[in-house]
Design brief:
- The chain has ten helices and nine strands.
- With about 350 residues, the protein is of the alpha/beta class.
- It has a domain at about 60-205 and about 245-335: 3-Layer(aba) Sandwich (Rossmann fold), CATH 3.40.50.1820.
- Helix 5 packs across helix 6 (about 175-185), helix 5 (about 140-165) packs across helix 7 (about 240-255) and helix 6 packs across helix 7.
Length: about 350
């Protein structure tokens, strides 16, 4: 095992030790509250966002570092416009296979890169790209990410209205949470259909341990997943987890009938972060009878060392499973005519 990997493991162990200390002191410090798997609890003072936050991006259009347009082929046969949002600390380019599949069947795509991912970071003269991106990642917030998503949605909506085609949400992990929270929080936001891959709208109880470190937003928690998928190889700052939890609490507070749009949810039953039971409980609680679940079956030969949360390309699912997923996605979005 190389030195960098050993350092990551030791740092992770140290973080877990800190978690144990804070769990013991949680009643005094007001940090971690027990949460059952698949449930969320609302913290005191949770913010409510219904319009773009008052920050440097809220001027009617998103920063050009946060979005990229991908035009359908051929463009004259446009059949929809999709907002695509990546997962937490995922390199936005890893959403490329999904984007390519959408553009091939006549869907324009706006790919959103949340702050701290891809090219969306504050460039600094005294830092290389990786260091500057991580620095921006240490300063993210729920309101910032929500604002970026809202402004990106406005562009998607405008293009769809101009061409009189439907609006789609296609998102992975925290991207699904951000997209659905945007939907239920804003009366002017609407999607005709959605595709969610392992959406972070329900978390396993163990993930809530990260909350014990909420007082240290700049602390970076190392990731032991495949580095090829990471936006920041050193790991994920606590600030990003804080934003995740605030988004989750806000979503839970506002969840309701507006969620009941034709939605296809992909999930691996062994997902390390997202419990299938929690997703189904949410759908049942809010009577979301238009939600359909697709259980991803990865190839058996991939089982050793497989990271089950990643279901976003052929490398993470296997070629056969990926082809089936893409056929199901295009069929869901465009109907039986999609090939």
């Amino acid at each position: 095992m190389d030195t960098s990997r050993l350092k990551s493991i030791f740092l992770l162990i140290a973080c877990l030790a800190l978690l144990g200390i804070f769990m013991f002191l949680s009643d005094t410090l007001g940090g971690l509250r027990p949460v059952e798997e698949g449930a969320v609890s609302n913290p005191t003072g949770s913010s409510v966002i219904s319009k773009p936050a008052d920050n440097d991006l809220a001027e009617g259009k998103p920063d050009n570092l946060s979005i990229r347009w991908f035009n359908s082929q051929p463009p004259e046969t446009l059949r929809g416009v999709a907002l695509v949002i990546h997962g937490l600390n995922l390199d936005p380019d890893r959403m490329g296979p999904i984007i390519n599949s959408l553009t091939r069947v006549g869907i324009d795509v706006l790919g959103l890169s949340l702050r701290g991912h891809g090219a969306n970071y504050a460039h600094r003269d005294n830092m290389d790209a990786a260091a500057a991106r991580l620095e921006s990642f240490k300063n993210v917030s729920y309101s910032l990410w929500t604002n970026e998503a809202y402004l990106a949605y406005i562009q998607v909506q405008q293009r769809a209205q101009q061409r009189q085609v439907p609006v789609f949400l296609v998102a992975f992990s925290i991207g699904g949470l951000i997209g659905l929270d945007l939907l239920v929080s804003n009366p002017d936001v609407g999607f005709d259909k959605a595709v969610l891959l392992a959406p972070a709208i329900s978390l396993r109880a163990t993930i809530y341990l990260e909350r014990a470190l909420s007082w240290f937003p700049r602390l970076v928690i190392p990731s032991l997943t495949n580095e090829a998928y990471l936006a920041n190889e050193k790991g994920t700052p606590v600030a990003a987890y804080n934003a995740l939890f605030e988004a989750l609490y806000h979503f839970e507070d506002n969840a309701g009938p507006k969620l009941n749009l034709p939605t296809l949810i992909f999930i691996d039953e062994q997902d390390e972060f997202i419990p299938l039971g929690g997703l189904k409980n949410l759908a049942e609680e809010h009577k979301l009878d238009q939600w359909k679940f697709y259980i991803v079956q990865k190839k058996e030969e991939m089982s050793a060392g497989t990271f089950h949360h990643h279901i976003i390309d052929a490398s993470s699912t296997g070629e056969g499973a990926w082809r089936d997923m893409m056929a199901t996605i295009t069929g869901h979005l465009l109907g039986d005519k999609a090939k």
